[in-house]
Amino acid sequence: MTAPAYRRLTVEERRDQLIGTALVLFAHRAPEDVSLDDVAAAAGVSRPLVYRYFPGGKQQLYEAALGSAAEELRRCFAEPQSGPLSRRLSRALDRYLAFVDGHDAGFAALLRGGSVAETSRTDAIVDGVRRAAAEQILLHLKVEPGLEPGPRLRMAVRTWIAAVEAASLIWLDEGKQPPLPRLRDWLVDHFLALLAATAAGDPRTAEIARAALALERPDGPAGRLVRQVAPVVGDALHLL
Q1: Residue 159 Ramachandran class (φ > 0 left, ψ -120 to 50 alpha, else beta)
Q2: How much is the pLDDT for 6?
Q3: DSSP 3-state assignment of 83?
Q4: DSSP character at residue 220
Q5: Which of 16, 31, 107, 136 has its CA 20 to 30 Å from the CA of residue 23?
Q6: At a CB cut-off of 8 Å and minimum separation 6, what does 42 contact?
Q7: What is the pTM of this model?
Q8: How many whole angstroms separate alpha carbon 219 and alpha carbon 19?
């Protein structure tokens, strides 16, 4: 058989290759435990070649890899704005939690901070993911860009994003238990409960919540949650 012809990578292809290789290494090891020699060896290139593309050394490569991962996380919450809200959240969380599962050590190091690679730029990249996720959730709630959703609803959404991050870290600490589908369902329940609690004291959120719940179905996540909560709430009717 004739060996395939060698093709030299373009500048952009080589850069993408090095970023992809670094992402794999950073996914399972803290940034401070990964050297440029490790990246070069994994990519099958020399250390000087890595420096040619990233003259700022490991810090520059780490920020480039982090930016690539951040873009992937942003896409997790991009979902067609049709159908029940709980179903859309479930699909977004499936993608987000799959990313956490595949980048366990790197995800933990990224969110916990304290890494020698952490800088104001990396902090800004992480915060940008959080803000982008919150804006996507507000879009799913039919809050149009440029319109003020109200401070309570915005706080509720950002609180939930923080809860998703915290739950993901705890899930990693607990040996990836419970199974991802159960964690996803619990996080969807958490969002619906937080939305309802916020709506109880905020007319604007109440209007948005009613519109969202009107699209839910009895066989969906919201219907399941209502059936599970009803007996608990029923035992507290003496509080009315």
Answers
A1: alpha
A2: 45
A3: coil
A4: S
A5: 136
A6: 21, 24, 25
A7: 0.82
A8: 43
